[in-house]
Design a protein that fits this description.
Blueprint lengths: L5 E9 L6 H4 L19 H4 L22 E4 L11 H9 L3 E4 L4 H9 L3 E4 L2 H11 L6 E5 L4 E3 L5 E3 L4 H9 L3 H6 L2 H14 L4
Parallel strand pairs: 1-2, 2-3, 3-4
Antiparallel strand pairs: 1-5, 5-6, 6-7
Length: 201
């Protein structure tokens, strides 16, 4: 998993509440178990018209936001079914951070396991960040995970809370497998001693 330390990137405003996982990645794209290739289907029903043409009014289709790495979203982001494809699609598109006033629990947990930083802020803080994000090409935010700060284009700073263990995992690029591999010496030592004590096992 890629480490998350400091991210400076364009922030796209998505002031929509209750964006569910089917809106993030529709069910017809769930046939794969690969984590790559899903970015093209991200927000498919909002990004494209029924005839397959691009919806130029959707925020990520607008020139200023095509390379956005941060999403400033409405309340209860990631609700709905527990599909891990949702953070896979966001990450494959290039989104590394989502900021909202609240997230669905399963989506929130899945973000950390896939290298995406979900940040919870107050409504007042979200309103300020949403205003920053509406600046188009100048909508650049800096997210510093170590300092737990979001810096706006005008120099304003918003601090955020994060679980220390999850922070450690993101800073070091550790998913569940990576956490297990950190214990490899202890595991090897245990197995060696077990083999000596119980050779029949």
């Amino acid at each position: 998993m890629e480490k998350f330390t400091t991210l400076t990137g364009v922030a796209a405003p998505m002031p929509i509440v209750n964006v569910d996982t089917d809106m993030i990645i529709p069910k017809q794209f769930l046939k794969t178990i690969k984590r790559t290739g899903l970015g093209t289907a991200l927000f498919h029903e909002m990004r494209t018209h029924e005839d397959g043409s691009e919806n130029t009014e959707f925020v990520l289709n607008q020139p200023a936001y095509r390379n956005a790495q941060i999403l400033v979203a409405g309340d209860n982001f990631g609700c709905g079914s527990s599909r891990e494809h949702a953070p896979w699609a966001l990450l494959d598109y290039g989104i590394r951070c989502v900021i909202s006033t609240s997230f669905a629990d399963i989506f929130y947990n899945n973000c950390f396991k896939n290298g995406i930083l979900p940040i919870v802020v107050s409504q007042e803080e979200l309103d300020k960040l949403m205003d920053d994000a509406r600046r188009g090409a100048n909508a650049t935010l800096t997210v510093d995970l170590e300092a737990q700060e979001i810096k706006g284009p005008d120099g304003g700073v918003i601090t955020f809370d994060i679980d220390p263990h999850r922070k450690h995992c993101l800073l070091n690029g550790l998913d569940d497998i990576g956490l297990t591999m950190e214990k490899a010496p202890s595991i090897d030592s245990f197995e060696s001693k077990l083999g000596e004590a119980r050779p029949w096992v």
